[in-house]
Amino acid sequence: MQGSHTLYITPKALHIKLWVDWWETYGDHFHLETFSRDLPGTLLEWFYDMFVYAANSNTAFSIVKRLLGEEGPFRDNGYLQTELGSHFFFALAQASPEAALACLKRTVGTWSEEKLRHFTVGRREVVWALERIAMWRPLFVDAAQLLLELGEVENEPWANNASGVFVGLFAPGRGEVAPTQASPQERLPVLKEALKSPSKRRRQLAISACNKALESQHFFRDVEAEYQGLRRVSDLWMPATYGEIFDAYRQVWHLLYAQLDLLLEDEQQLITTILLQRALILARYVALADMVVDTISKLAQKPSTDKKQLLALIVRIFRYDGEQLPQHTRQRWEQLKDMLMDSDFSSRLKRYVGMDLREVNSYEHSNWVDQVQLGTEVLAQQVIENPQLLALELSWLVTAEAQNGYRFGFELGKRDTAFSLLPVLLNAQRQADKNATVFFLGGYFRVLFENDLLQWEDQSDLLAEDKVLCVWLPDLTVRSGLTNRAGLRLLKLAEENAINVDQLRFFGGGRMIQILANDTFQQWLQFLLSCSHPYALPIALDLYYAYYVDREKSNWLPLQETLTILTHLAWIEPNQHVRFDSIDYYHWTEVGKAFVQVHLKESKFLVSWMLEHFGERGTILDHSSQTASVLSWVTEHTPQEVWPMITKFLGPPTDARAFFLQEWLGGGLREKDDPMSQGMLSHVPLELIWTWVDENVEQRAKYLASFVPKSLFRGEDCLARNVLMRYGERNDVREAFSAHYSSGVWWGPESMHFELVKRELLDFKLEEKDLNVKCWINEYVIELDKYIERAKIREERDAF
């Protein structure tokens, strides 16, 4: 062709070399304003990007320093606050971090708090630049200070904003995951100064940075910031000895603890939480163990410290590291534990009753569980002997702070044989406000239920009439016990909107709902099915599963009620305010399976309903859910009845429902050796399939070939081979099956995958006698050769 030519794209390294050579030749005559005016926008942006590599040209480097200097374009603060200007600055900063830092100190470093708060366009590039600048040891302190100023007036929500980058600078990662060349000792002054700042936001960032500096297990950093032009920030911090690492932890640990008496109460609580969280891991190191124990012992002496948190920490330390602790360290922790437990009644009550007993139970190699149980029993007996002791503690016993409250309430109820404390406990519960729970009262009610059921019923009736306490009745019933009378009581409250319908779900756990008489349960069910609460139907299904299906022995399931709940309109009418949980899909599937197994002959209506809505997104029959297994079970056992119903919804043409049915029938994109790859079509007798296809061979033969299970094997049950044998003389059938056979997933190089497929087909062909099957293999192998050739070209290009 006249005038034709070939354009070769120059590799990036050659671009850089040409660019550097250009600067050496023409750089002395460079004027930014003229150059920017003459270049198109996209080319100008590319040109600015190339300044990243300016350090490799003496001429370009001198221009970078001039551009970032006092007479450069950034003398005007507005230029840094434009997309192109900030983009240019980011490139220049990687060429000369020193000049970029000086530029930022003259600009951003002098801005008012209000201006920094409204700094949006260009902020991202400045933060990225400071992250890279801070990697250089001599520049760390000033760069960190600027990030702290930006973080103080943070206006970005993502993790790598100015605040996040500032905090990340203090991570004690080593070598490749270190955030800077500066050692922890060199970074420490920034934290000390920030902790003394009158700005609460700065102090909070400093506390977060101290927390990051105490990290000892998980270190990571995005690999990018250390690459700046053709240079790489080398010798990122690497300690010479373990002692240097431990010194870094000690400095930050002591710095944090020293702030406890200097900062505001909420900041003190935050520091205490950090020290306790980090203590669990740092205490494992022999070099740091005494430091940690010393600090925790001092915290134990402070009146403001929650002693149960300290005790819980010791439990976890013994749980995870008890056997590995040196004898000296173990003895110190034991002494501290004994000191925490052996104190006045109020303190011991908060230790034993305030502690989460699940944490204690998980520690299998101690007698602490027995100690807690014994301590709870002793405390309960003390209350019986001196009820005034309880009066001072009730305000927190009826809240979530009493994590072991159920056990204490149970022990108290066992000893209060006349239940004389019940009015006092109910009054405390009535007055509870913030974080109120009935853990404590529930344990007491459990004893009342077991020892005096009539009084429990009467008392529950009174609670149902109490406008304040009635809301707690479902929880109290779950924690103490359910009766048929209680079921009717709760139903009445739900009908009157006195309790939340959500609370009824709890009675499915532990099969508690099975206690109700059938007629009472039916009343619950009818109420839920007619209720306007958005999750009433899932709750009804949950309870239905627990009542009828989740039984040790169950051979009866109501026909009409089960169909009603399984085919309820709400299952197929997606509600933007309702999102079905995985447990909803599970319960629907299990109830559905139970129904079709008990009422197989009557399952036709359910099957028809499922097929009509098969695969609809956001419904109980969503294509990604497990509910299709109900349809699979019926198909396996009665294919003659189900197949005609299925074909009503198949293509061609193919809509969304037909597509999902094809996936279900054909096994989808599963591997050929996956047992599920045969799909449900393998359970349908061949004569039924052929009858359906032969009614319209022109359309249905190739359609069947597009989703038939694609596994090829010897034997009469191989559907794919049977389709090819029967209809394979048609080109459209072979083409459709080829396209279907090519679909799927695999691991590794594409060429290797197709080579394996080709080898398997050629081996299969050796014993194949049917001409249609052999014809398809021959044609498909030719296609495979093309696939293999193209794949190898791509793989070679990618490797290069």
Please characterize this protein's 3D structure.
There is one protein chain. This protein is mostly helical and 800 residues long. Among the domains are: 127 residues, no CATH class; 89 residues, no CATH class. It has 43 helices and two strands. The chain has a two-stranded antiparallel sheet with strand order 1-2. α10 runs parallel beside α12 and α15 runs antiparallel to α16. The longest helix has 29 residues. It is flat and about 85 Å long. The N terminus is likely disordered.
Structure summarized in a few sentences:
It is built from 43 helices and 2 strands. Helix 6 (83-95) crosses helix 7. With 800 residues, it is mostly helical.
Radius of gyration, Cα only, in angstroms?
Answer: 37 Å
Count of strand segments: 2
Low-confidence stretches: 1-14, 361-365, 670-677
What is the molecular shape? Answer: flat
**Number of helical segments with 4 or more residues:** 43
Helix/strand class: mainly alpha
In percent terms, what proportion of residues is strand?
under 5%
Estimate percent helicity: 55-70%
How far from one another are the termini? 31 Å
Summed over residues and divided by their number, the pLDDT gives a mean of 87
Major beta-sheet overview: 2 strands, antiparallel
How do the strands of the widest beta sheet line up side by side? Answer: 1-2
What labels would you give this structure?
800 residues; mainly alpha; two-stranded antiparallel ribbon; flat; disordered N terminus
Give the secondary structure arrangement, pairings included.
Blueprint: H1 12-26, H2 32-38, H3 41-49, H4 58-67, H5 77-80, H6 83-95, H7 97-106, H8 113-117, H9 123-133, H10 140-152, H11 162-168, H12 184-195, H13 200-213, E1 227-228, E2 231-232, H14 242-258, H15 265-282, H16 286-301, H17 307-321, H18 327-341, H19 345-354, H20 357-361, H21 368-385, H22 388-391, H23 394-397, H24 405-415, H25 422-431, H26 439-451, H27 453-465, H28 473-480, H29 484-495, H30 518-530, H31 536-549, H32 559-566, H33 582-598, H34 604-612, H35 628-637, H36 639-647, H37 656-666, H38 686-694, H39 697-705, H40 719-727, H41 731-742, H42 750-766, H43 771-799
Antiparallel strand pairs: 1-2
